[in-house]
Amino acid sequence: MQTLVVGAGAVGGTIAAQLVRAGHDVLLCDADPAHVDALNASGLRVTGPADTDDVTVPVRAVLPADLPDRVERALVAVKSHHTRAAAELLRDRLAPEGYVVSLQNGMTADALGDVLGPERVVVGFVNFGADLIAPGVIAQGNVATVRVGELGARPGRISDRVREVAALLPWAEATDTIAGYLWSKEAYGAMLFATSVSDLTIADALGRPAYRPLMLALAREVLALAPVQPEPFDGFDPADLEGSLDRLVTFNAASGKARTGVWRDLAVRRRKTEVDDLDAVGGALVHQVAELVRAIERGERRCDVANLDLLAAYERLDRLGRPLAAVVETLPAPARAADGPLLGMPVAVKDMIDVAGVVRGNGNPRAMAEGRPAESDAPVVARLRAAGADVFATAALLEYAAGAQHPGLPEVRNPADPTLTAGGSSGGSAALVAAGVCPAALGTDTGGSIRVPASYCGCVGLKPSHGLVPVEGVTPLAPSFDHVGVLATDVATASAVLMALTGVAPVPAPEPGALRVGLLAEQVADPRVQPGTRSAVEAAVERLVAAGVLVVEVDPTPLQALDEVFGPVILYEAWRELGPFAADPTWFGPDTDRLIRSGRDVTENAYTSALALREALLPAADALLHGVDVLLGPAVPFVAPVTTPVIDSPEGETEGLFSMSANLTGQPAVVLPCGTDGGLPVGLQLMGRRGGDADLMAAAATVERVLGGDAA
């Protein structure tokens, strides 16, 4: 009986060569004319570590249009997305007693069965590695598991036809559990697809500790969907995924096939892959892999390790971010520049900043459900993309950044202790950074909304100088005080993001002996500061002094004098900006509704008087920096509470006691972790000169270096 091999590429060609060597009558069919011509002219050559004989066998090959009218047995080894086309080629050619054997990746038996009849389909499982490296030439990397069976076979029942195929195919064994092998291969295949979006070898990508949680999560996601018991093969054991990774690293390191066929399709052949079949399996993380593959297929990305870093961030987003209620939306395969200073950095964006194609949710269920997707990116998002960053998620926030949680949404929890709040209003951004999901996130700050959650969660929070970072495309609260800023794992990352957003280049950090700090001692001594928080800040100051930093006490009275300006301005402007929503009494949560409506009672005269008072008081506040580089004080008087206090409550007023000053003056301010109180993070705040953002961050880098591991 002649055996037709449809698809003479890596798998089909390798099998065909072995069949010819064993004396079988084989006809090859392939859609590539150059490959067909080479096969007929020079034979089929199989080389590589798995076949040291470097075998060349004479074969006959045809294009699909030249297939014979009658086919007794066909081995189908085309890419999964060509399955139906291959089946149509065979529909009227397959003999009444003829059958086909699928030797493909993925779940292709149904597509073959739909056209040819399921009773005429034998399913193969092939795990050896091979590549078509030139017309007529295949490199075989290893010899591995090959199984054949029929879907729906009864336990212990293997048909004569399956036994016939097992005897025909090289390295094959018959099985009554072929579906279990296919599902295991899908799980392993999900990991292999993930490796293919990078420029790493299979063994290197599987072996790197940074990607281990990603690989395990992909396999678990697929296996959780399996309707049958998955089967082990070649070191992959569904019952021991942790051990499987180590075994698969060894297996692939010894193989002559260093990278997947998917990688070759993407990076070398630049053609469509079998990703649709993988995506059809389902699963959120698998979908992210598929979207990245498609982006590479479209030429929007290249195979790069940064893609693996993004996939690892998606895995952390689900594992670490979602349990904290910090995630609003995941953004698949985000558009970005191919190069830049932030290349491949995953960055989350507070869900009140426009991201093209995404609804601006503003921490409000109605806005999330009824809002229209943004037509374009806010300038800050566009600048991140231009710098090569991956804007990969939107982060949760207090409702409209106004200082209260909407009761219809869960409050963001604190990575340091999930029974406590992450703070607000940029709590989602702070939680994602502090939990290790991503190195940076954008937030907004009108009275401390970046710096308060940074202090609570134990990360760096930067509010730049007012007006330095554009706020177009950002939901306004009080434009006189609104800022877009950065939450980050460390000062260097915050500085890098600031440079991408503004063009402000970092300056060298001074040596401790060259740094002059103005200590706001009365803030530290304020009785509203918790004793443990005070102790942490004082201990940090002592370490700075011991390192040689010049610390002098500064009277904060000029800053305190500005406090009476805050209420009239923020309430008046918030009513002007958000009051139209209050026309619908069901739009806001009750606390936000009360806060916004209280702005109706602020007269224009009171508002303009408050602005005038601010202008009159600013020179005295500026003078506090004469003779020093930065001002230092507590970020928040206490550690994270169970829930965010409403801004117009006594606790809410105390929470913003030290942070709102920089919004009133427009100075840049940054919060750094400086220790703990009862095991919870404590932050200190540094304030610099307006427009002196680079100098502030340089000073912050020195302080961070002196305090060392206290940021952890």
TrEMBL record:
A Pfam family it matches: ApbA
Coiled coil spans: none
Start and end residues of each Amidase domain: 336-696
Domain (Ketopantoate reductase N-terminal): residue spans on this chain: 4-151
GO molecular function: catalytic activity
Assigned protein family: Belongs to the amidase family.
Protein name: 2-dehydropantoate 2-reductase
Species name: Microlunatus antarcticus
